[in-house]
Amino acid sequence: MKTNQTEGSPQMRGSMHGKELLPLIKAAGRADRYSENLWKWVRKYRDRPLFVAFSEKDGHSFDETKTLASRLYIGFHRLDDGWLHGSRLSEILSQGTKAESWAYQPGMQFKEIPDWWDKYMEHGKCFIDPEHCLYLDAARWFVEGNVRTCLWCGNFQQREHVQMVAQRDWRPIQT
Ligand SMILES: [Zn+2]
User: Fold this and answer.
1) Is 8 contained in some domain?
2) Distance in Å, CA 52 to ligand 1 centroid
3) Contact call for residues 78 and 111 (beta carbons, < 8 A)
4) Which residue has the higher pLDDT, 94 or 3?
5) CA of residue 156 to ligand 1 center, whole Å
6) How far is the CA of 162 from the centre of ligand 1 (A)?
């Protein structure tokens, strides 16, 4: 792993220092739009450049319309001959600073996503969970009748689905 960064070194494409990310996330405001655990993790590694990569193993490819946190990884510095040193995003989201870091092998077929941090800054947690299936947090939704709207992005709605099951049974005739 390369650690020979100089003071104020030019930013590598797609890779940002934790200490640069923290004020940006804060400035974007509305703290509830952002993951507290990811914030804590970035703060822990504030002195390292951080990049985000997607594992294309088994023919998958990154798709912004899908919730793919379990295939995304945050790495330190940059890919090193295909190796990624870092943590799995889904683990960071659920465990914060307790997420383990490993050296993930080139067989994972990592592909860097250079604009990931920019988009996270812009869209918050809904960029991580565009399908709105993670974060089962009541504070996310504004409910009106049987429709609920995501408060974090303001433009995702779900309709309550109630399945009515027809039931028939036979009872004795009272005479
Ligand atoms: Zn949303």
Assistant:
1) no
2) 21
3) no
4) 94
5) 5
6) 22
Domains held by the chain: number: 1
- Region of poorest pLDDT, from 26-35, 55-64, 91-100, 116-125: 26-35
> For residue 140, how far is its CA from the centre of ligand 1 (angstroms)?
8
Domain assignment present for residue 97? The answer is: yes
Quick check: is 151 in a domain?
A: no
Domain containing 77 equals 16-133
Q: How much distance in Å is there from the Cα of 94 to the middle of ligand 1?
A: 18
Distance 157 CA to ligand 1 centre (A): 8
Specify if 75 maps to a domain: yes
> Any long-range contacts for 91-96 (C-beta under 8 Å, 24+ apart)?
92/35, 92/37, 92/38, 92/41, 93/35, 93/37, 93/38, 93/69, 93/128, 93/134, 94/37, 95/37, 96/36, 96/37, 96/38, 96/40, 96/41
The string of pLDDT tens digits covering residues 18-53 is: 788 777 776 665 667 888 889 889 999 989 999 999
First CA to last CA distance, the chain: 88
CA of 124 relative to ligand 1 center, distance in Å: 9
Distance from Cα 133 to the centre of ligand 1, integer Å: 10
CA 96–ligand 1 middle distance (angstroms): 21
pTM (two decimals) = 0.79
